[in-house]
Amino acid sequence: MESTLTADLVRDRAATVARALSDAKRLCVVERLADGERSVSDLSRDVGCQVPNMSQHLAVLRAAGIVTSRREGSTVFYRLADPQVLEVYRILQQVAR
Amino acid sequence: MESTLTADLVRDRAATVARALSDAKRLCVVERLADGERSVSDLSRDVGCQVPNMSQHLAVLRAAGIVTSRREGSTVFYRLADPQVLEVYRILQQVAR
DNA sequence: TCATTGCTTGCGCAATTACGCAAGTAAATC
DNA sequence: GATTTACTTGCGTAATTGCGCAAGCAATGA
Fold this sequence. Notes:
The structure is a homodimer. By secondary structure, chain A is α+β, with helices and mostly antiparallel strands. Chain A is 63% helix and 14% strand. Chain A has a single domain (4-96), classed as Orthogonal Bundle (Arc Repressor Mutant, subunit A), CATH 1.10.10. Chain A has a 3-stranded antiparallel β-sheet. In chain A, strand 2 (67-72) and strand 3 (75-80) form a beta hairpin. The A-B interface holds A 8, 10-19, 21-24, 27-28, 64-66, 82, 84-85, 87-89, 91-97 and B 8, 10-19, 21-24, 27-28, 64-66, 82, 84-85, 87-89, 91-97.
């Protein structure tokens, strides 16, 4: 058996992850990071938005535990924290068609 | 190769599905519907919200193509349109932990 | 130390969202 | 036809979100 309290927590966390994936630009970031880590400015250019905007999107993804970051000199690289997010995205696309 | 136009469309649709799953109450609905179809009032009671609120949540899920409805007399039954959404939810929970 | 590069944070605003409540529609029963 | 049951839709509001822009912080180099 499972208490409704933990069930609620699991749902809330899953909802947070889904929320982080509910934006086209953030999904674009996930696609880019599938090939490996990238800097904020790279992602900003790829997605086609300003750097502060990208930084905020990355903060949302990080808060959801989808990405992690690493600083190398003055550059910050982001990468997928869990490759399983790609599996989520893949099935998401199937459901979406 | 694939045009960026269709890539954008695919992302937008996937984002819409993720958006529909980004609410704890709607995830609760998905859980309930995993066992089969249920009426709006049933879902309303299970989730613990008012009927109009549940109706709106179901409208969001339907707009995303996640559920379909069937009227039997004065009662409307909802069910999952695509069982794959359960797979999305399952992996979503793994990423979320 | 000062300037530059790369990123984050704060702020204001427009748009979207979730909710309660009231009103409207649809089907069954009287 | 009128009432009841089941659901949807409209409306107002508080909260959240995405964005641009300016300012701040960290690391490198002059």
